[in-house]
Amino acid sequence: MTMLAAIIALAAGTFLIRLAGPVLRNRFTMSERTETILKAGATVVLLALTVTSTLIVEGEFAGWALPAGVLVGGVLAWKRLPLAVVVVAAAATTALLRLAGIA
Amino acid sequence: MPSRLIRTIGPELLRDISALATGILIVGVSFGAIATAEGLPWWQATAMSALVFAGASQFATLGIMTTGGGLLAGVAAGLILNMRHIPYGMAVGGLYWTSLRSKLLGTHLLLDQSTAFALAAGEDRRRARIAFWTVGATVFVVWNIGTVIGALAGQFIADPAVLGLDAALPAILLSLVLPALRDRPTLLAGLAGTAIALVTSLFLPAGLPVLLALLGLVVMWRGTKPKEREAAS
Fold first, then answer.
1. Fewest Cβ atoms closer than 10 Å to its Cβ: which of A13, A16, A62, B68?
2. Which residues in chain B are contacts of A9 at CB distance < 8 A?
3. Distance (Å) from the C-alpha of residue A52 to the closest C-alpha of chain B?
4. Do B114 and B188 fall within a single domain?
């Protein structure tokens, strides 16, 4: 029962949070400069999210295998390889390092 | 119809989205499996995936609730994790802010991935709009199918960490933000913001550090006026 309440509360709250962005956006006068800053803002958050979630898992250092895999993926993406290649290389690197006993 | 759809979306985007869909499916399966292992009935796990539709917050709320953390703590942790959707909506909200139906659907489909794909489309608004909707709809379908599979058959499925699959989604997000980081001011803002997020992760609850990363944007105010930036690019 409590779980159901949690699901409904989280769903409603999350929808309102998702709604807040565009509503705030419409209060700005959209110059090209504002648009650039807003896009950079989302990019900064995505980059920070990627790096923190790669290095820290459940409040502790994630170990070397995960960041190493993501880094390999990032290098291949920088060389403009397709996303499928990036994903396979990242997962394979992480899996092989773990197989070799490196957490 | 399918061939027309493929032509509109474009083979390259479809290929990238397939890679993403595979990654999302696997995380969806592990969410369903963990939820069932924690004693959640399959339909509640599925309802959570369909209604909340934000993976990290689902894991967090579920984890706190099932370890006796209580309703308020569970929901609060999930909502704090989801605050990052505010800057996402400010950046890409214009893509779906048209009819009421489009506003409501687009709002529910606002994700890390739909935002990242839309941003990676660059200045081309038509491509950005196609990327946003295709990614949002695909992830919604795949995430929910994955949850059901995991909830019903989770105990038969191997640990994704053994296969290194936890590296898949961060690698995809990193790939998608790289084009934007070729712009120097954005790169500097990103590096400064990430440093702030990493340091504050040591003492703030998950979700707040990535918002504080926005402070990194101040480096864009200094020195770079719009005209210079145009000349430089």
1. B68
2. 71, 75
3. 6
4. no
Closest approach of A27 to chain B, Cα-based (Å): 10
Q: What is the pTM of this model?
A: 0.90
pLDDT of B84 higher than 80: yes
Instruction: Check pLDDT > 60 for residue B124.
Output: yes
User: From B162, which residue of chain A is nearest by alpha-carbon distance?
Assistant: A95
Query: Are residue B79 and residue B187 in the same domain, yes or no?
Result: no
Q: Which domain holds residue B206?
A: 183-233
Q: What is the band of B2 on the pLDDT scale with cuts at 50, 70, 90?
A: low
Is the domain of B150 the same as that of B207? no
Which of A14, A31, A35, A60 should we substitute to test contact with B (largest number of B Cβ atoms within 10 Å)? A14
Residues B61 and B175: beta-carbon distance below 8 Å: no
Residue the block writes with tokens 């390889």 = A81
B175 near A CB under 8 A: yes
Shared-domain flag, residues B32 and B94: yes
Q: Do B151 and B188 fall into the same domain?
A: no
Q: Same domain, yes or no, for B121 and B96?
A: yes
CA distance B49 to B201: 26
Q: What is the pLDDT of residues B161-204, one digit of tens each?
A: 888 889 999 999 999 999 999 999 999 999 999 999 999 999 99
Kindly list the residues from chain B whose CB atom is less than 8 angstroms away from the CB atom of residue A43: 119, 177, 180-181, 186, 189-190
Residue B228 has pLDDT above 70, yes or no: no
Q: Which of B2-11, B148-157, B193-202, B217-226 has the highest mean pLDDT?
A: B193-202
Full DSSP string of A48-78: HHHHHHHHEETTEE--SHHHHHHHHHHHHHH
Token readout for A83 is 């996303």
- Measured CA to CA, the distance from residue A35 to residue A51 in angstroms comes to 24
How many distinct structural domains can be found in chain B?
2
Distance from CA of B82 to the nearest CA of A (A): 6
